[in-house]
Design brief:
Elements (H helix, E strand, L loop, with lengths): L1 E5 L2 E7 L4 E5 L21 E6 L16 H15 L4 E6 L1 H12 L4 E7 L12 H5 L10 H6 L12 H9 L2 E4 L2 E4 L14 H6 L4 E6 L7 H10 L4 E5 L6 H4 L1 H13 L4
Helix pairs in contact: 1-2
């Protein structure tokens, strides 16, 4: 695996001889969310993952302002840095919403798009932890143990063990003055979320839509409507997974993505 710097965007490139696949993480996550998935392809797909600005090891915006357009630009920056003409774009959660926006804007660049367990529209009836946290200052913890003990997924359902969750928390930290904080800019939690229906209607590339069987973020009804709104899309449910499908069911997800990529026209 090779790490690449593309201006403010950091990439990880696992190589591989097959179709190029760019992986996009969710809100407050980073490219490491794909670590359980990529090795399962065994080089059959050419896999790379990016950290969106404000996440992982990528840069932060000076004023702390982020928008979906910021992250769509990051996908194009990553593509250019990798030297790919056409590729499969695969996103989870917020990354899925960005992948769909990119697909609508740059169909000539994509062989296909995969969108996994994403919020279809803002839910004012059940505000999540992100909504409660977005106006608080970036937390700093005195050491890694104190920080990783506070690590939580949002939504919190997961098939991961407590030990694996703690390990993921440690991989989600960066050192700062006074200790450690998370590998994402807290201010990114304030990004605007619009309904996806208009974006779906503009996508004109082959698409795979997926949700976790136990997801509390994307319902079966949301998945079915998304498939109806996106012409020709295929919809699947990943058994045993909550919202964080790459973490909960990497083998089933890897197989679904590989099968989708194998069936795409050149």
């Amino acid at each position: 695996m090779t790490e690449l710097d593309a201006g403010p965007v950091r990439l990880r490139d696992w190589g591989g001889a097959g179709a190029p696949v760019l992986l996009a993480h969710g809100m407050a996550a980073h490219s490491g969310w794909w670590d359980p998935v990529v090795p399962l392809w065994g080089g059959v797909l050419r896999a790379a993952a990016l950290d969106f600005r404000g996440h992982g090891d990528s840069g932060r915006t000076e004023d702390g302002a982020y928008a979906p357009e910021t992250w769509v630009e990051d996908v194009e920056t990553a593509r250019a840095a990798l030297g790919w003409e056409r590729f499969v774009l695969c996103g989870h959660s917020m990354g899925a919403r960005i992948a769909l926006r990119y697909a609508a804007a740059h169909p000539e660049r994509l062989r296909g798009v995969v969108a996994i367990d994403f919020l279809t529209e803002p839910r004012t009836d059940r505000p999540g932890r992100f909504a409660r946290l977005r106006n608080r200052p970036q937390p700093v913890y005195p050491d890694e143990d104190a920080a990783s003990a506070r690590f939580r997924l949002e939504p919190d359902g997961t098939a991961l063990s407590a030990e694996d969750l703690r390990a993921l928390g440690r991989r989600s930290l960066r050192p700062v003055e006074g200790g450690f904080t998370w590998k994402f800019d807290w201010r990114a939690l304030g990004v605007r979320l619009d309904p996806v229906w208009g974006v779906l209607a503009r996508v004109r590339v082959p698409a795979l839509l997926a949700r976790g069987e136990f997801s509390t973020l994307m319902s079966r009804e949301d998945l079915a409507r998304s498939a109806r709104e996106l012409p020709g899309a295929r919809a699947v449910e990943i058994p045993g997974a909550h919202h964080h499908v790459p973490l909960d069911a990497p083998r089933a997800l890897a197989a679904a993505i590989a099968a989708f990529a194998a069936g795409l026209p050149e």
